[in-house]
Each structure stands twice: as C-alpha cells, then as structure tokens.
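Bench log, entry 3. Co-assembly request; chain sequences pasted below exactly as received.
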Amino acid sequence: MRSFALVSALAAVSAVQAGPTKRASITPVTTKGNAFFVGDDRFYIRGVDYQPGGSAANVDPLADKKICEPDIEKFKKLGVNVVRVYSTDNSLDHTDCMNALSDAGIYVVLDANNPLYSINRENPGPSYNAVYLQSVFATIDAFIKFDNTLGFFSGNEVIHDNKSTTLAARYVKATTRDMRQYIRARGYRHALVGYSAADVTDNRMQTAAYFNCGTDDERSDFFAFNDYSWCSSDFVTSGWDKKVKSFSGYGLPIFLSEYGCNANVRDFGEINALMSDKMTSVYSGGLLYEYTYEENKYGIVNITTGRANLAGPRVELDEFAAFAKALKDNPAPTGTGGYNPSATSQPCPAKDANWIVETTLLPALPDGAKKFLTEGAGKGPGLKGAGSQNAGGSSTTDAAPGSGTSGVTAGAAGTTSKAAGVSLMAPLDKAPFIISGIVAFFTLAGAFAL
Ligand SMILES: *[C@@H]1O[C@H](CO)[C@@H](O)[C@H](O)[C@H]1NC(C)=O
Ligand SMILES: *[C@@H]1O[C@H](CO)[C@@H](O)[C@H](O)[C@H]1NC(C)=O
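Structure output for the full assembly:
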C-alpha cells in the first residue's frame, strides 16, 4: 500500500508538471499447485465474459477505446477483476484498453484462436499447421507485454459431445504445448495457457485428465470449463457439489470460463458458492457469461445501438445490480482456501467408448513453425485473410514427450513438436445444444471451437 501511495503521489506530481504520467503497476498472475496467485496472495477469478456484438460481430473490443472505455467504467462498478475476450485482432494495438484495464485492476484472459485461424474439430490434423500457429503466436506477442494479461486459451469447446471430436484433443494439447514453448523461447514472462472445455458428462473427466497428463511441457497451466448447470438453483441441485468431489485432487488450477443461465431471473448464488470453502479447495472462481446482452439473452448490459455502433450508449439491465451485489456480498476469501500446493500430473485417460484417442503422443511442431521460436511470429493476420485451416504445412510426425522443453530451461528454444487444436465452424452461433441431458450452449468460443 505504501509503495502504491508513493506511485500515486508521483503520478500526481507528474500530471501537474504535464510530464509523462507514471503508471501504477499490476502484478502478473502466477500459479502454484492447483491455485492462482498474485504475489503471495491466492487469487480468485471474479469476472465476466466480454464480447460486445457477440460472435456475429467478431469485433476486437480491446483495440478500440471508444468501445472498451465505457465498459471499463461498468466493470469498475461491478467490481470484476478479470474479463475474457474471445475475438482479438493480433494486427492491432491494444495499449489504450489494456492500460485502462490495468489501471482498474482488471486482468484479461484471451482466446488465442478465432474463426479463421483455428483447429477444425472435424478434421483436426490438417488444420494444425504453421499458418495457424503463426496467428496464435502473434496473439501472444500482441498481449504478453501487458502485465494484466493473465493468460491464453489454447482452444474453446473443441471437444464436445460427439465422441469423434475427442480425436481433436491431441491437436489442442499440442497447441497448448507450442504456446507454452513459444513463451519460453521468446524469453517472455510466464503468462498462463490452458483449455476452455465444454462440460460434457461423457468426457468431462477424461478431458481434464488429458490436459494434466504427460511431461510438464505437455501439461497446461490451468483447466477451465463452461458450465450451464446452475440455473437459479443451488449448489446441490446444479450438481456442483458432485463436480467439486470429482475434481478433488486435480493437479491444475480450475475455474469456470463461462457460467450462465438465461431461463430465470438470476440472483448469482454461484458467486456465494465459488467463494466459499465448499469450492475453494478445488475451484478458483469463474466468469459470468456474459456482459453484453445479445440474441442469446444472457447479458447484463444492453448496448442500445446494437452491432451498428458498439460504442453506443450502455444501459444496465436488472441483473447488472444483482451481479454487482453478489460480488460485493461475497468477497474473495482470505487465506489459502485449502488449495493443494503440491498438485501434480496424473495418468492419461485410457481409450474407451467415449474417449477414442489412441495414443498419448502429440503431433510434432510443424516444420514451418519452428522458425517462430527463434525469429518470433512476425505480423499477425488479424481477424481477416485467407484463414489457416486448409493452408497446408501440417505436422507430419509425432513428437517425443518432453520435446517442448519444459520450464526448467526457461528461455531455451527447443526444436520441438507442436500441435494446435481449434476448430472450424461458422463463427458465433450460440445455438442451444443439449449435452448429456443438460442444456449447454456454444458460445462464441464454441463457434471458434467448432
Ligand atoms: C460426429 O462427427 C463425425 C465426424 O465429423 C460425423 O461424421 C458424425 O456424423 C457425427 N455424429 C453425430 C451423431 O453428429
Ligand atoms: C436494448 O436496447 C434496444 C434499443 O433501445 C431495445 O430495442 C432493446 O429492447 C433493448 N434490450 C433489452 C434487453 O433491454
């Protein structure tokens, strides 16, 4: 606090002198065992999913301060500390919005894929290629310089309830490995990389195990899933009590990358549960789906001009105040929350009727992508261009475990295997989708993953 006050005082002096203003800093989020940390304090994600205009607009809200600034005022009023953004343009500058978020104490977690540059879940092998990885790495380049970039999603709902999609898991996991290797190879700070999973009963546990098995270079930094099972109900009716039990002992930090319901008026009891000792030993918070009100009717803020003008007036819907109240009434717990400091890897899931992955080996980094580790990714293609899924130059062989040169050798650029997993689909339909008896929804992210 003392040093913060000093920085503020200096900033005030600078402002008076009309000199450059010194920014207050924000401490990057790290992990230990199955929890997130900021410095020595455990960190809980208390946030929202943020994609004004929805997937149909496919607009990067962090590249335009006319869009982000009014929303950051709302984020401050809500009291959120993390936002997830699905569509970002790696050819644009994000300094204004990222710094404004940082000044508000807000971290960002980003999807590294977009509709054009993603893994095709229906035919993943060819889509894991150098053109795809160049875009993914360029997204890392665009955001890792901001200390409030919490991390990146290597895929979103690529695996869903069709068991054939479990075959795409290798490519998503290879992408995860490649992103983490790229971050080390470029000498960047350790921003976090993980997968955002659909909550599918038939493969929930296999998917979680898969992203936490193998050598350290192959594992993720965190695991997240999108959960639509709490609909103005409670901890037990939603089945969250069982999920906490299922994930007890899991070796990575877990959070909900989406939680939502559009069927009832919400009181956001989810936050009470997430911040209580019923969950904190296993979960580290979550992100409300979603901030803006779109066709799928989840949002809590209406941009009254719609997609025609995403910088238009913002109107708080009734659930805005309810969400703010739930956050205020349920602060992040102090202390350790009962986390497990020595969480570790686990065996990879066996092949069975629902998980049809034959091997624990991952595809090798495509030859054409190796140069990015030493030269950098160069200019990103943004949200335009020819796309990557049929670009050719895919991986031709499997990699030896450990080829991604684990974190022990920070900064080393190994020649390794890399694979990516994102899927193709028409971006952004959030069509209601039944998964194993519960109603779930493909989000924007789902569209990317599709
Ligand atoms: C599952 O996906 C495969 C491969 O894309 C497709 O051929 C099959 O029809 C799908 N099955 C269902 C039930 O949708
Ligand atoms: C959002 O604003 C538009 C324009 O005023 C209005 O037509 C629409 O009904 C509003 N939506 C909600 C959910 O309030």
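The CA atoms of residues 82 and 150 lie 8 Å apart. Residues 293, 302, 304, 317 surround 2-acetamido-2-deoxy-beta-D-glucopyranose (ligand 2) (CB under 6 Å).
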